[in-house]
Design brief:
By secondary structure, the protein is α+β, with helices and mostly antiparallel strands. The protein has four helices and nine strands. Strand 6 and strand 7 form a beta hairpin. The protein is globular, with a radius of gyration of 16 Å. It starts with a helix and ends in an 11-residue tail after the last helix.
């Protein structure tokens, strides 16, 4: 097999992002090596007045993609814990960016045969992705990784993405919200 299982997960996360963003009317640009080194896997470009009070009508957001086939465990706060390498965590916390950056985690079934199912009538990508902004998240006392929490309400869907883009178009900075 040409691709490893992790490569396949990564490619499915790009496909998921591309499908959702395209359906939302946005363009997705896969990051090149230098952007990848800055923690950006893809950029979503939008050109639309998302709300009557939109300040921006032509803007972009950056995305770091992750995919896992581990069973998602919803905690008592309604969040999915996800371990993130500390260097990735710190890049996503950065507030000195023009474009806001989001972590999008695609949860795949444990069985690779269930990741993508298709027939003559439909193609089904099993499970879904959630997003979180780690902008302005606190420093981590850890040395190698930091567990982040993706709210189950932050479904990365067409409606979810359009809601994020509406907020960004209004000039709202979406910072990390510590789960309580």
């Amino acid at each position: 097999m040409l691709l490893t299982e992790n490569d396949i997960k990564s490619e499915l996360s790009y496909a998921y992002l591309h499908a959702v963003a395209s359906r939302a009317g946005c363009e997705v640009q896969k990051a090149e090596r230098y952007s990848d080194g800055a923690g950006v896997d893809a950029t979503i470009r939008a050109r639309e007045r998302f709300a009557p009070d939109s300040v921006f009508t032509h803007f972009s957001i950056d995305v770091q993609l992750k995919a896992t086939s581990g069973e998602p465990n919803l905690d008592d706060r309604g969040c999915y814990p996800f371990p993130l390498r500390l260097d990735h965590y710190n890049k996503l916390r950065d507030t000195d960016r023009q474009a806001q950056q989001f972590l999008v985690v695609l949860y795949l079934p444990p069985d690779p045969e269930q990741w993508l199912v298709h027939s003559a009538e439909r193609m089904i990508a099993q499970r879904c992705a959630y997003w979180v902004s780690l902008q302005a998240a606190p420093d981590s006392p850890n040395k190698s990784s930091q567990t982040v929490y993706l709210p189950s309400s932050n479904l990365f869907s067409v409606a979810g993405l359009r809601s994020v883009l509406t907020r960004v178009s209004r000039g709202e900075r979406i910072d990390y919200e510590q789960p309580v």
